Each structure stands twice: as C-alpha cells, then as structure tokens.
C-alpha cells in the first residue's frame, strides 16, 4: 500500500513493527488512526500488500568540524 501521506506511511511502518512484537492493543490503536485517515488497515499478521517506504528520504546531517584547542 503506497501512499503520499507521510502520516499514513509512518502509521503503517509502526503497525508492522507492533504486529511483529505481538502488541495487539497498540495495533488496534494504530488501526483506528488509519481508519480516521480513510485507510483500511491490512489484515492482522500480514504486512501491507506493497512494502512501505519512506515518503521522503532522510535529510543529510552536517558533520562537526574538527575542534581546535
């Protein structure tokens, strides 16, 4: 299930991890949030049909310059 909405993508990733850990109560909470956003949650125990990916790549990080004494 590919999505352009970053919140839905994050919820789907979170849900996948919760299913793997067996936290059914948290999965239900995430499912509720997905439904509020108009997305039908995947069946329990199965990953989304299409692997979820980040909607935007992570931003590059600046490295600190060398400290001079």
Please explain how this structure is put together.
- It is a single chain.
- The chain is an all-alpha fold and 69 residues long.
- It is built from two helices and no strands.
- Helix 1 packs antiparallel against helix 2 (24-36).
Layout of helices and strands:
Elements: H1 6-21, H2 24-36
Helix pairs in contact: 1-2
Brief synopsis:
The chain has 69 residues and is mainly α. The chain has helices spanning 6-21, 24-36.
What are the salient characteristics of this protein?
single chain; about 70 residues; mainly alpha; 2 helices; about 40% helix; about 0% strand; elongated
**Helical stretch tally:** 2
| Average pLDDT reading | 79
Tell me which oligomeric state these chains represent: single chain
Largest sheet, if any?
Answer: none
The ordered string of helix (H) and strand (E) elements is: HH
Number of strands: 0
Instruction: Tell me, briefly, the overall form.
Output: elongated
Helix proportion of residues, in percent? Answer: 40-55%
End-to-end Cα distance: 53 Å
Q: Which spans of ≥5 residues are poorly predicted at pLDDT below 50?
A: 47-51
